[in-house]
Amino acid sequence: MNLNLLLFGVYPYIAGTIFLVGSIIRYDREQYGWTSYSSQLLASRRYMMWASNLWHVGILMLFAGHFVGLLTPAFEWLGFNPIQHQWVASSAGITFGILAMIGGLMLLLRRMLNPQVRAAGRKSDLFILLWLIVTLLLGLVTQATTVPDLMAGNVANMEVLGGYLKGIATFQPHPAMLAGIPLIYKVHMFFGMTMFLLFPFTRLVHIWTVPFNYLIRPYEVVRAKQRSI
Question: 11, exposed or middle or buried, with CB in 10 Å at 0-12, 13-18, 19+?
C-alpha cells in the first residue's frame, strides 16, 4: 500500500469513524465532560466578544463554504460557471479565513499569557486550538496557488479536489486523482482530516449540542412575589 492510498484512501475513513463512534461513546460515558470548558469569565468581556465572535463566525463560515462549494452543486444551480464559482469561493475563504485567524490568535495569546486562563485550562485545549490555527493557516496558504491559477483561468486543481471529496463522501474514493495536486493542498487536507480524528477527545464535542433552541424557545416569565395583606 503506497502512502498516497493510505493517507487519502484509507485515513479519511479512519478519521471519520473515530469522529462518529468516538463522539457517541464519549456522550454515553462522559456526560459531565461534555462541555466547552469555557473560561470566558476569566477575561475582559470586550476582548472575548471580539476574539470569540471573529473565531466562531470565521470557522463556521469556512466549514459551510467547504461543504457547499466542494460537495454540492449549489453554485451550478445558481448559474455560476467554474471560474465564477472559484472566485466567490476564494474571496469568501480569504475573508473568513483572515477573520478566524485574527480571532484564533487573540484566543491563543489570551490562553498563553493570562495566568488565570492558563491555570484553568487543559493541555488538550491549547493543543486543539494550535492544531486548528495551523490548519487554518495552511488553508490560507493554498490561496497563493489558487488565486494565480484563477487569474490564468485555470480551475483544474479545484475541480480535482471537489471530485476527490465527492468520491470520499459517496464511498468511492479515488486517491490517485491527487497525484498531480500541489503538496500544500494535501497537507491542508491531512490536517483537516486529523481534526475530525481528534474531535471526540477534545472540547470540540460541544459543537454537537450547541443550544440553538435558545433562539426559538419562549421568553421566561419572571413575576415578583406579591406580599399577602
Answer: middle
Question: Furthest-apart CA pair in the chain: how many Å?
Answer: 85
Report the 3 state secondary structure along 104-126: HHHHHHHHHHCHHHHHHCCHHHH
Instruction: Determine phi and psi for 181, rounding to 5 degrees.
Output: -80, 135
In this structure, how many other beta carbons lie within 10 angstroms of the beta carbon of residue 198? 18
Tell me the per-residue pLDDT of 9-58, one tens digit each, with 9 for 90 and over: 999 999 999 999 999 998 888 766 666 555 555 566 677 788 889 999 99
What predicted TM-score, i.e. pTM, was given to this entire model? 0.84
Shortest CA distance to 133 belongs to which of 105, 91, 170? 105
Distances (CA, A) of 126 to 37, 62, 63, 178, 186: 12, 21, 21, 32, 24
